[in-house]
Design goal:
- This protein is α+β, with helices and mostly antiparallel strands and about 210 residues long.
- The chain is built from 5 helices and 11 strands, in the order βββαααβββαβββββα.
- The protein has one domain: Alpha-Beta Complex (tt1808, chain A).
- The strands form 3 sheets. Strands 1-9-8-7-6-5-4 form a 7-stranded mixed β-sheet, with helices on both faces. It has a two-stranded antiparallel sheet with strand order 2-3.
- A hairpin with a 2-residue loop joins β10 and β11.
- It is globular, with a radius of gyration of 17 Å.
- It comes from Fibrella forsythiae.
Length: about 210
């Protein structure tokens, strides 16, 4: 198991030098500052369409679907609510994040209103990075650490961030000052009696990657 120090960094994404970027290319807002989709510069240059950069990869899409199906059958659905499909999370005014998979405790929720969630989920699971990270110190690592810190400060208890290119999982717990990186062949506990092994999940479906 690899451990990474929680540096408590508060650095915000730098403003893009690009002007007149279409609103559709904004992936998240961090205290009013836009975080764009990865590849948005290719759209501005006419090399890609907006739909191309907003779409996920084959492995990312398959993993999110497998995770959703697996967790749906594992969690106590009378106690927990599972949500997916780039869930919008409203932290504060002009401060909005996107998540791949979230798990809520039903007892802490109100009725659904057709808007972004504005209360913290118990669990967040992310698969890869869809944001342009060029404006973040330390690039992808900086983005992961800063977004995770925002989620923890909002009240999220545990975050699992799967990086398919490295076959690794960040395991981040609000009550553990050390954040860990494990191989995705490692069994991790999502909540209660719900273990998760990414490699096993893929292998059981006979998916090649």
């Amino acid at each position: 198991m690899t451990a990474i120090a929680d540096k408590q960094t508060r650095t915000q994404p730098r403003r893009s030098s690009k002007r007149n970027v279409p609103a559709a290319l904004i992936y998240e807002q961090w205290v009013g500052k836009p975080v764009y989709y990865k590849g948005y510069r290719d759209v501005l240059a006419g090399k890609k369409t907006i739909e191309e950069v907003m779409s996920c990869s084959d492995l990312q899409g398959v993993l999110v679907a497998l995770l959703t199906g697996y967790l749906y059958g594992q969690i106590d659905r009378k106690q927990y609510l599972l949500a997916t499909n780039e869930i919008g999370l409203h932290l504060a005014l002009n401060d909005n994040l996107c998540n791949d998979v979230v798990i809520y405790e039903k007892a802490k929720m109100d009725k659904l209103r057709g808007k972004y969630f504005d209360i913290p989920p118990k669990i967040v699971i992310e698969v890869d990075i869809k944001a342009d990270v060029s404006g973040f110190e330390n690039g992808a690592d900086g983005y992961v650490m800063q977004k995770a810190r925002k989620l923890l400060d909002f009240g999220v208890e545990r975050i699992f961030w799967i990086i398919t290119s490295m076959q690794k999982v960040y395991v981040i717990d609000r009550n553990d000052p050390t954040w860990h990186i494990v191989d995705w062949s490692t069994s991790i506990s999502v909540l209660d009696d719900c273990p998760l092994n990414i490699k096993q999940l893929l292998d059981e479906e006979e998916i090649e990657y």
